[in-house]
Sequence to fold (587 residues):
Amino acid sequence: MAKRMELQDLNIYYGNFLAVKGVNMVIEPRAVTAFIGPSGCGKSTVLRCLDRMLELTPGGRVEGRVLLDGQDIYAPNVDPVRVRQQVGMVFQQPNPFPTMSIRDNVLAGIQLNARKMPKAHKDEIVERSLRGANLWNEVKDRLGSPGNGLSGGQQQRLCIARAIAIQPEVLLMDEPCSALDPISTLAIEDLIQELKENYTVVIVTHNMQQASRVSDKTGFFNIEGTGKPGQLIEFDLTEKIFTNPSQKDTERYITGQFG
Amino acid sequence: MTVTGGNVVSEDLAPDQSLLVDRRKLGDPVFKGFSVGSGMLILVILAAVAAFLIVQAVPAFVADAADLPYGNTWGYVAPFLFGTIWSSFLALLMAVPVAIGIALYISHFAPKQLASPVAFVVDLLAAVPSVVFGLWGINVLAPALVPIYQWLGANLGWIPLFGGNVSGTGRTMLTAAIVLAIMILPIITSLSREVFLRTPGLQEEASFALGATRWEMIGQVVLPFGRSGVVSAAMLGLGRALGETMAVAMVLSGGRNITFQLLTSNNPNTIASNIALAFPEADSHAVPQLIATGLVLFVITFVVNMAGRAITSGHGFRLAHKRAHKEG
Fold:
C-alpha cells in the first residue's frame, strides 16, 4: 500500500478556461502532503485531478501527466473507475449514504468490487476499517443503525472508514474538517497522523495551523487575480514553508497579510 | 421617564405612529381566507361526489336481484372490477420499467442538449387526448399486433396467458394494456425524473469516489434515493389507468368474461369503459347499478392513492424505525 504520485506540467481546464497552470510536484508515499492557498486558487481542483473526479464536472479536462507509481492515470487505456479504487477521497461535507446502515456504508466500496464474500470476512473489514478511522468503539453496538444518525464528526470518520475499506494506495481529503467542530477536527487530525503510516495522504485545507500540525510537506497555491489561472507557488517541507519560505507571496500568505 | 434606584421606568406616552396597525395588513386575512376557502372547497367537492355515488348507488345494493336489470350488483361488477385491475396492472408492469429507463436517461445519461428535448417530448405525450390514443390503438396498433399475437398463440399458446382463440382484430386485453401503458408513461417518467434529478450531488460523488461505474452509482445512490418517489409516481399512473375510459372503450373488445388470457376477443371490460358504453342505453333501473360500479371504482382509486401516499411518506421513517427496533 501507499504509492507515490507525480504531477508533471499539469494544466487543468474547465471548458476553455485555464483554471490551474503548470503544476509540477512529487507526492511522497506514507507522508501527509497539504495544499494551502486562498479561495479559488485551484487547490481543490488539483486534488480532484488525482483521482479523475475532475472529469465528472462538465468541461473538466487535464493536460500533462499524473503518475501513480510511474503509471500515467490519464493514459488513454486507463479506466477512471480503476483509478478511483486506488485513490480514495473524503469530501468537505460528510456524505455517508443515507439509505444505508453504518455497516453497509463501510462495505459500500467492497460491494462494488467483490461480489461474493463470506460474512465473517465482511465483519473483519468493517471492524478493521472502523478501527482505522477511530470510530469502532463509538459505533460497534449499533452497526445496523443509519449512518446519517451519527454526529458530524462521526459521519466524517465513517466516510474515512468507507474510503479505507477498499484499501486504496492514496487518500485524498478535500477540507475534511471545515464542516466540523474543534473537537471533531482534533479527532480527524489525530487520525490523519495514523493514516500516513499506511497511506499516501493529500489534504486540502483552509486552515494553516492544520496544515502545519498534520503535514510533512506543504504546497502553496495562489492566483494573480480573478480570471487568472491558479499556480503552485512553492512546494517544500512544511517546516520550511511556515518558518522560512523562499517566496515572498508564501510569506505574505502565512503571516496573514492576504487570503 | 423616571429613575428609581438605578432602574429606568418608562411612562405611558402617546403611541408611536410607526407601531400602529397598518391598512396594508388587510392583505393577510384576505389571502388567508382565500387559501382556506380553496382548501375547504376541494374537500367539499370530494364529499359531494362521494355522497352522490353512495346515495345513488344504494338502491342497486339493497334491491332484490330479480328486480335489477343486470341482476345482483356484486355479480355484475365483478368481471369489470377484474378487468379494471388486470388491465391497469399489465399497463403498470410495462410502463414502470420503461419510465424509469427514460427518466434515468434524461437525468443521468443524456447529453445536456438532448435531455430537455426528450423530456419535452415525453411530457407532450401527456397532452394527447385519450380519444386520440383510442383511435390510434384501434386503427394502427391493434392491426399491427395481430401477426405477433398469432405467432404468440401458435408458439407459446401452452402458456395460459397466451392461450385461447387469438383475436383476428387485435382488440385484445394486451392491446388495451399497451395503450394504457403509453398513456401513463409520461406522468411516471416526469415524476421519476424529478426525484432522480434531486439526488444530492455529494452522494453521487461519494459513490464515484469509491470506484463505482455510472450504472453502479445509480444502483447505489440514485435508485435508493428515488425509490419512494418512483412508487408514488407509479401509484399516480395506476390511478390514471384505473379510471381511463375512452381509450379502453374504443380499443378493448370487452365483455364479462373473467380470464387472464391476453390475446382473445373475449375479455373482461373495465368499469369506466363499461359505464361509458352502457350508459346511453340505460334506463332508470339500470342507472343506479352503473353508478354502483362507479362507486366501486371510486373506492379502488381512493385506496390506491392512499397506499401510494402511505408508501412515500412512511417509507423512510419505517425503515429507520424497524432498524432501531431490531437493534434495541
About this structure: The mean pLDDT of chain A is 91.
